[in-house]
Amino acid sequence: MENKIKQYSQAQRQALNAWTKMVRCVGTVGHSDWMIMNENGLTISQFGIMETLYHKGSLCQKDLGEKILKSGGNITKVVDNLERDGFVIRIRDEKDRRYFRISLTNKGTAKIKVTFPLVMNNLVKIFSILTEQEQQTLAELCKRIGLEIKKGNQNEK
C-alpha cells in the first residue's frame, strides 16, 4: 500500500502528527475519566456542569454552556436531567426574570464532592509521568492553540 502522507509538506505532516497524538491522548485520558464518572452515575456533560457549579457557584445556563463548551440546547437537556435527578435547581434571576440561575442542591453537592476527587486523583496519576515543568508547558501550549483558534474565529465574523 502506498504511503500517501509523503505527498504533504513537512509542515503539514508535522501538524497532522501533533494533532493525531493530541486527539489520541485526549481520547485516552477522557475515557479514563469517563469510566469514573460513569461508575458514579454521571455523564461527562453532567459532571462538567456539576463541577463548574461546585467551583464557580450558581450560573445562568448561557454562562454555564460557555464554561463547558456546550450549546444552549445541549445544556438545557443536561440541566433538565440533573434537575429531574435532584442534583440542581433553577432559580429565577432576581435582576432579570427572563434568566434562570442554575445551582447545585445539597444532593448535587454531595455527589460532586465524592466524584470530583476521584477524577482529580486519576488526572494526577496520569499526569505524574510528566514533570511539573512539562505539565505547565503542555497547559501553555494547549491554551495558546485554543486562543489562536478563538481569535481566528472571531476575525471571521
So, CATH architecture? Orthogonal Bundle
Q: How far do the termini sit from each other?
A: 43 Å
The largest sheet is: 3 strands, antiparallel
Uncertain runs: none
Number of helices: 6
* Count of distinct structural domains: 1
Q: The CATH topology, please?
A: Arc Repressor Mutant, subunit A
CATH superfamily: Winged helix-like DNA-binding domain superfamily/Winged helix DNA-binding domain
| Shape assignment | globular
Describe the protein.
It is a single chain. The chain has 157 residues and is mainly α. Helices cover 71% and strands 8% of the residues. It contains six helices and three strands, in the order ααβααββαα. It has helices spanning 10-39, 44-56, 61-68, 72-84, 106-127, 132-156; strands at residues 59-60, 88-92, 100-104. Strands 1-3-2 form a three-stranded antiparallel sheet. Helix 1 (10-39) crosses helix 5 (106-127), helix 2 (44-56) crosses helix 3 (61-68) and helix 2 crosses helix 5. The radius of gyration is 19 Å and the shape is globular.
